[in-house]
Specification:
The chain is about 20% helix and about 40% strand. It has about 120 residues and is an alpha+beta fold.
Length: about 120
């Protein structure tokens, strides 16, 4: 999967996530392989089916409380890999995630720095 053709840049990361189903009785854990403000690619021992709506908690290293995603969707499943899109993140949690991504060694690339200057 190519990461450089995305609207929002993803960074390499290993972040523990926990999730529960919104409309289905499903819960589990996974670890991200890459992460952005809009979603992630993760590895999961028992992945939810494609189309499952989830509430997700991201346990970012160095951050005291998990980032809560009120609504996420399993976009694709390939064996133990899943693609998760984030749809509803409370503003303070979105800001916390964005700050963490920008402070990450992988988030400090030239592309991210340019986007940060343009947004300012």
């Amino acid at each position: 999967m190519e990461l450089h053709n995305r609207k929002v840049r993803r960074i390499r990361s290993s972040v523990r996530i926990a999730f529960v189903g919104v409309t289905q009785d499903f819960e589990g854990e996974a670890h991200t392989l890459d992460l952005s403000i809009n979603g992630c690619r993760a590895i999961c021992q028992q992945p939810p089916p494609k189309g499952t709506k989830l509430q997700v908690s991201l346990y970012l290293p160095g951050v005291d409380r998990p980032v809560s995603i009120a609504l996420a969707l399993i976009r694709w499943v390939r064996k133990a890999l899943v693609g998760i899109d984030f749809y509803s993140i409370p503003p303070s949690h979105r800001e916390q995630l964005q700050t963490w991504i920008l402070r990450s060694p992988y988030g400090r690339s030239e592309d991210v720095m340019k986007a940060q200057r343009v947004a300012a």
